[in-house]
Design brief:
48 residues; 2 helices; two-stranded parallel ribbon
Length: 48
């Protein structure tokens, strides 16, 4: 298993905010290359 450099807990606005900011800054691909674990117990992302 590849190690993760970033772990995000929760798929609501607080968890997705850093991913959106990285996408807007053009650095999301770098984050994805280093490995991201997104931990969410719900069925959907984005809250509710």
């Amino acid at each position: 298993m590849k190690p993760f450099s970033t772990i995000i807990v929760g798929g609501g606005p607080g968890g997705l905010g850093p991913l959106i900011a990285a996408a807007q800054a053009g650095t999301l691909e770098d984050w994805l290359d280093r490995g991201i674990a997104l931990v969410e117990r719900g069925e959907r992302l984005g809250g509710k």
